[in-house]
C-alpha cells in the first residue's frame, strides 16, 4: 500500500514540478515522513531519522524531476537565461552549507522549521504586492547583486536544510521582478538543480561519516526504493502535465500556488 501511495504522490510531484516549480520537496517530504513513521515506528532507527531520510530522498528525486522539467521548458522556450546565472551558482554554494547544518539538527526541529517557513512564505505571497496580481504594464527588472549573491546563498542554504528545492523562494523573487507565473515557475526548475545535487551528495556523505546504516536499500540517508517509486510516478506526472504549460491564467496560477503551500503546511502540522 505504501508503494501505491508513493507512486501516486510521485506523480503529483511531477505535476507540481512542471506547473509550480516545486521539485518535489513540498509533496515528497511530508508523505515519505508519514510513511516512514507508520511503517517503522518512532523507536526504530529509520523512524528516528525519518525527517532526514525524507529530506535526503526528496533532494535525490528533485535531481530527476528538475532535470527533465528544465529540458522540457527549454524546448518550450519559457526559460530566461539572464535570471538563471549566476544566481544558480550561489544557490549551489548555499545548498552545501544547508545540508551540512541539517545533519546536526534533530528531525523534530527540521519539521517545525519546515512548517514555519511555509507559513512565512504564504503570508509573504498574500500580502506583498506583485505576487497574486502581476503588474502587466511594468517592465521586468534584473536581479540585484543583493538578491543574487547573499540572496542566492540564503535560498540554497534554507532549501537544502528543509529539502524543498528553493522554488518557494525563487518563484516569489522572480515574480516580484515582474515575470509572469509561467516564466517564474519554469525557471524554478533549473534553479533547484544545484540544491538537489549539492544536497543529495552532502546527505550521503554526512550519513556515512556518522556511520548511519539503515540497510541494503539505503545510500546514506537516501531511501533508494522510495526514490525509484517516486521517480517513476514523477516522470509520468511531468509528461502528462507539459501540454498545460502557459495555458493557466496568471492570477489563477498564483492563487493555486499559494493554496498548495497551505495544504502542505496543514498536513505537516496535524501529523
3D structure, described in words:
The chain has 271 residues and is mainly alpha-helical. Helices cover 73% and strands 1% of the residues. A two-stranded antiparallel sheet has the order 1-2. The longest helix has 29 residues, at 181-209. The protein is globular and about 55 Å long. The protein is built from 12 helices and 2 strands. It has one domain (2-269).
Features:
271 residues, mainly alpha, globular, two-stranded antiparallel ribbon, 73% helix, 12 helices, single chain
Number of helices: 12
Oligomer: single chain
Averaged pLDDT: 78
Q: State the strand order across the main sheet.
A: 1-2
Derived structural class: mainly alpha
The general outline is globular
Uncertain regions: pLDDT < 50 for 5+ in a row? none
Order of helices and strands: HHHHHHHHHHEEHH
Distance, first to last CA: 19 Å
Helix content: over 70%
Which sheet architecture does the biggest sheet show?
2 strands, antiparallel
User: How many independent structural domains?
Assistant: 1
Family: Belongs to the 4-toluene sulfonate uptake permease (TSUP) (TC 2.A.102) family.
Membrane topology: Multi-pass membrane protein
Protein name: Probable membrane transporter protein
InterPro entries: TM_pro_TauE-like (IPR002781), TSUP/Inactive_protease-like (IPR051598)
